[in-house]
Specification:
The two termini are 32 Å apart. This protein has 14 helices and nine strands. The chain folds into three domains: 195 residues, Spore Coat Polysaccharide Biosynthesis Protein SpsA, Chain A (Alpha-Beta Complex), CATH 3.90.550; 27 residues, no CATH class; 121 residues, no CATH class. Helix 9 packs antiparallel against helix 10, helix 10 packs across helix 14 and helix 12 packs across helix 13. The C terminus is likely disordered. Strand 2, helix 2 and strand 3 form a beta-alpha-beta unit. By secondary structure, it is of the alpha/beta class.
């Protein structure tokens, strides 16, 4: 057997199916096998593979074992001279496997190789070629200096930005999204370190390959599409925790040179500070839309003075202050919760889900309305314009977000769904 392709999948059925079709096309005239390891997906991925790709080997896990352990499961089944670890959110070209096999056959000292990766829009992904993150290189990356000086040979070394992406190069680190290696080299160095649940294991394995005096290469003679981030939910706080935990594991394992204690200490501060900022950013981004909706709804109470005056004149005793202190926040909270339950805050944002949530929230308010005493309840004439205002206001916000999504670099404003660079 010349090649074994190992794909670990978790709840990315559609991407996995497209990936497997591309793999099938690229397998023409190549003695190879495909091993799919499913990490207990709940989206019918297993049934799809079994039905549409019966010739592929399929391992079904009863739990999510993570990237490293799942790949290592295929070790006993893989019989190829070469092993390709491939993400399910990728598409390979028809010549990809042939180009890689020919390159490795002609470079016996090469332990592993990667290819040019682009996103769905054809934009080059810098993680196609990387260097070993020494303490200084890692510090530049974590501190954000790499992004400021991407082409610097020293500061931008993490992504080897000074190397021409259209030329072949000997590099140091491959991404787990496409990691093409000799099986005998993997058996010699050991496969993925299972201390890494996800992220960091590709860097660690690359380091061990180089330590065994094998070379790693970047070859732009073929390319793949990587729908970066689709195999993981980067918008989740769990992603942040797993990612930065992996960075900490790698630092403890490899940053043990004498005389670098202070730099390593600063690096750990940077790692955990970035993790804190990332979590804070995600919390704020999740609260931004509900808070905006609440502000718009509250604004409705302020810009309909005639309704307030009519309410005051019909009660004859003035508008009780408890309404502003208790009832109004309670009604707004009820509407926001109703929108949340209806999926109005799930990405991608859907206006119809928001309006459905407001409708059900309004019905609930009317039901509660009939249970309150005269001094507490807001009369129907107040609730109706408020509901109309809430529907119009929240719709405008979502239309605005949708317009932002159409601008270059703004897609994340609406939706964002993988190995990071």
């Amino acid at each position: 057997m010349k090649l074994s392709v190992i794909i670990v999948s978790y709840n990315v059925r559609n991407f996995l199916e497209s990936c497997l079709y591309s793999v099938e096309k690229a397998a023409t005239d190549i003695d190879m096998e495909v091993i799919v390891v499913d990490n207990n997906s709940s989206d019918s991925s297993v049934a799809m593979v079994a039905e549409k790709f019966p010739g592929f080997k399929l391992l079904r896990n009863k739990e999510n074992r993570g990237f490293s352990r799942a790949n290592n499961q295929a070790r006993e089944l893989a019989t190829g001279e070469y092993i390709l670890f491939l993400n399910p959110d990728t598409l390979v070209k028809e010549n990809t496997f042939r180009v890689c096999i020919d390159f490795m056959d002609s470079h016996p000292g090469a332990g592993a190789m990667g290819v040019k990766m682009t996103d769905a829009e054809g934009k080059f992904l810098p993680e196609s070629k990387r260097s070993i993150p020494t303490p200084m290189v890692a510090f530049y990356k974590i501190s954000g200096l790499t992004a400021l000086f991407p082409r610097s040979k020293s500061i931008g070394r993490y992504y080897l930005g000074h190397l021409d992406k259209n030329m072949p190069h000997q590099i140091e680190v491959l991404t787990g999204a496409f990691f093409f290696a000799r099986k005998k080299v993997l058996d010699e160095t050991g496969w993925f370190d299972e201390a890494f649940f996800m992220y960091g294991e590709d860097i660690d394995l690359s380091c061990r390959i180089i330590q065994k005096n094998y070379t790693i290469h970047y070859h732009p003679g073929t390319s793949i599409i990587h729908y970066k981030g689709e195999s993981t939910r980067k918008s989740s706080i769990n992603y942040v925790l797993v990612f930065y935990k992996a960075m900490a594991i790698y630092a403890r394992k490899h940053f043990n040179s004498p005389g670098t204690f202070l730099l390593i200490y600063l690096l750990f501060i940077a790692i955990y500070f970035r993790a804190f900022l990332s979590i804070a950013k995600r919390i704020i981004s999740r609260l931004l839309l509900p808070v905006s909706d609440a502000a718009i709804i509250y604004l409705g109470f302020l810009i309909i003075p005639s309704t307030w005056e009519q309410q005051i004149s019909t009660t004859g005793s003035g508008y009780p202050p408890e309404n502003q202190a208790v009832i109004i926040p309670a009604l707004i909270t009820l509407l926001i919760v109703s929108v949340y339950i209806s999926g109005g805050y799930s990405k991608p944002f859907r206006i119809e889900k928001t309006l459905r949530g407001l409708f059900y929230g309004g019905i609930t308010i009317l039901i509660i309305y009939g249970m309150l005493s005269d001094q507490w309840y807001l009369k129907l004439i107040t609730i109706i314009p408020l509901a109309i205002w809430a529907g119009i206001g929240t719709t405008i916000v979502r239309i605005f977000l949708a317009s932002l999504a159409g601008r270059p670099g703004s897609a994340a404003c609406v939706s964002n769904t993988g190995h990071p660079g």
